[in-house]
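DM from R.C. (forwarded with permission)

"hey, sorry to bug you on a friday — could you get me a structure for this? deadline for the figure draft is monday and I only need the backbone to look sensible"
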Amino acid sequence: MGKEKIAITLDEQSIGELDRLVGEKVFQNRSQAIQEAVSEKLLRMKKTRLAEECAKLDPALERAISDEGLTEDAKQWPPY
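My reply, with the result:
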């Protein structure tokens, strides 16, 4: 995957914490730390969105839809 350089603005406290982590070799550099933080945040947001969409589902309706036609299909299945 290609990379693109961007400029961001952070408060001094965040930059200090970031530099401390780079100094402790937790990250190779600021860019790596920010890249990992953004990637983790995007992943969490995707998981949250999935949970929100699932919460909108009506379990009874979903069950009824999934059971549609199963009775007729079951009659056509060979016995075990």
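R.C.: lifesaver. The chain has a mean pLDDT of 88.
me: no worries. Residues 7-57 form one domain.
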